[in-house]
Amino acid sequence: MIQQQQSMTLSPYIELYNLIIPKDNMLRQINELVNFSFVYEELKERYCLENGRNAIDPIRMFKYLLLKAIFELSDVDIVERSRYDMSFKYFLDMAPEDSVIDPSSLTKFRKLRLKDLNLLDMLIGKTVEIAIEKNIIKSTAIIVDATHTKARYNQKSPREILQDRSRKLRKAVYAIDESMKAKFPTKNTTDVLENEINYCQKLIDFLETESGIAQLPKIMEPLNLLKETVEDDLEQLRISADQDARLGHKSADSAFFGYKTHLAMTEERIITAAIVTTGEKNDGKQLQTLIEKSKAAGMEVRTVIGDTAYSEKDNIAYSKENNIELVSKLNPQITQGGRSREDEFEFNKDAGLYVCKAGHMATRRARQGKKGIGKNQTDTYYFDVEKCKRCPFKEGCYKDGAKSKTYSVSIKSDEHTAQMAFQETENFRKKSKERYKIEAKNSELKHRHGYDVATSSGLLGMELQGAMAIFAVNLKRILKLND
Predict the structure, then answer these.
(1) Mean pLDDT score, 398-423
(2) What pLDDT shows up at residue 250?
(3) Could you give the percent of the chain with pLDDT greater than 90?
(4) Is pLDDT larger for residue 168 or for residue 411?
(5) pLDDT band at 412; cut points 50, 70, 90
């Protein structure tokens, strides 16, 4: 049962917060900046209003997840820190003497209360609303790009994940007491997953019962991460599959397995829209949705700045119809006109090659015909036949017994005359220099908020991770610009 109205925190020790937490503390500033009652309004229908015991305040649960996104800690460690960190307790609207939640409540909150909630658009929309109210967003341009996130489970085998986390734990222990090497259980030397799990469990048991150092902060964090992997993620480790993750490419010889987050951001570096897709999706095809989402969030969009992936024929036509300047250099190879089965093959601008719907990239390209003589030139892309033979999508695409598999694209640069003329102007060159800002934002998401690797499996889990990380970076940016 959820309380039907929010209650104030009453405590004889409440004044401690004013003595301990400075005015410029980030969590204090976020609390003063954001009215989190919108979380209660969005989630109250997911609770019973009449029966059962009182539920933990959904705003507090949401704030715990926000703290996880900001500080990149496990459920156990974020709850443990809220036990003694007064800035955490203040942010969570707790009295100094209040007890903390059980860490397992966070898992239930994510799975039961946030399921099927469009959290990504809601949180981005809230931050854009705050930025507009504070008169922070003044530009009418958005910068677009995509950043990739590796899947948690498939980039490494389950045994490698356990080995990596147990190695980090041992390293932390050795830094404190190197004599522990002789006391640790014998390492697993086989490739059997069950043996690695047993070793990790023995290591955990030894540190918790015999070492006497398990409560040290430098040991607790890697220990809790290993426990969380062995206990909470055991089922996923055994399956070792993320059904939603897909193979994507950053260049001709660089691939990743996971997801893409397509972003739109203002020149003030406030993210206005995001779309989470599987790794093989084409960047350019998300542009129109990003523009519409930015408008829905409250942005006026007159200019779009992006790389060559966004200069597709459809995007140029859409921009012209909506009186939007598209600051994106043309690449003749991206031209969509006249291609057959264009939904099955998509151009990867980083590698300069096409990718089929199974995620396989062409191995080479050959140009046929002469420029300006006779018919249009075509680019023919050659795929690895051995992969085609085993491909689950080969029906209607690859003919059994064929010695080669190719895909040809007709080059029709004349259709882009207006865009070609625009990209030669001083206005185009000046605005295109703003594109670096979104690369910096991608780096911030990955290196400060753990967005380089998915924290859970599945597209829904990735969307939740994206929602909290983007909400956090937007709030931090608003605080900086509001000073």
Answers:
(1) 78
(2) 63
(3) 43
(4) 168
(5) low
- Burial annotation 76-86 (CB, 10 A radius, 16+ → b, else e): bbbbbbbeebb
* Contact between residue 446 and residue 147 where contact means Cβ atoms under 8 Å apart: yes
* DSSP-assigned letter for residue 181: G
Q: What's residue 7's pLDDT?
A: 57
CA distance linking residue 342 with residue 135, whole number of Å: 43
Please tell me the distance from the alpha carbon of residue 138 to that of residue 61, in angstroms, as a whole number.
Answer: 33
* 141-162: b (≥16 Cβ within 10 Å) or e: bbbbbbbbbbbbbbbbebbebb
The DSSP letter of residue 207 is: I
424-479 per-position pLDDT tens digit: 899 999 999 999 999 999 999 999 998 998 887 788 889 999 999 999 999 999 99
What length does the chain have? 483
Tokens of 457: 């499996």
73: alpha, beta or left, given left = phi > 0 and alpha = psi -120 to 50? beta
β-pairing, 271-278 with 254-266?
A: antiparallel
Collapsed DSSP state (helix, strand, coil) of residue 378:
strand
Higher pLDDT, 126 or 163: 126
Nearest one of 119, 137, 100 to 478, comparing CA atoms: 137
Please check the confidence at residue 252 and state whether its pLDDT lies above 90.
no
Eight-state DSSP code of residue 280:
T
Tell me phi and psi for residue 394, to 5 degrees.
-70, -20
CA 7, chain centre distance (Å): 34
What is the rounded (10 degree) CA torsion for 388, 391, 393, 399?
40
C-alpha 28/C-alpha 328 separation (Å) is 41
Q: DSSP assignment of 106-153, as one string?
A: HHHIIIIISTT--HHHHHHHHHHHHHHHTT-----EEEEEEEEEE-TT
Query: Would you give the DSSP letter of residue 31?
Result: H
Q: Among 208-217, 284-293, 352-361, 374-383, whose mean pLDDT is lowest?
A: 374-383
CA-CA distance, 327 to 305, in Å (whole number)? 5
Q: What's the rounded Cα separation, in Å, for the pair 467 and 451?
A: 11
Q: Which of 305, 332, 341 is nearest to 433 (CA)?
A: 305
Q: What residue spans of 157-216 are helical by DSSP H?
A: 158-176, 193-206
Distance of CA 482 to the CA centre of its chain: 26
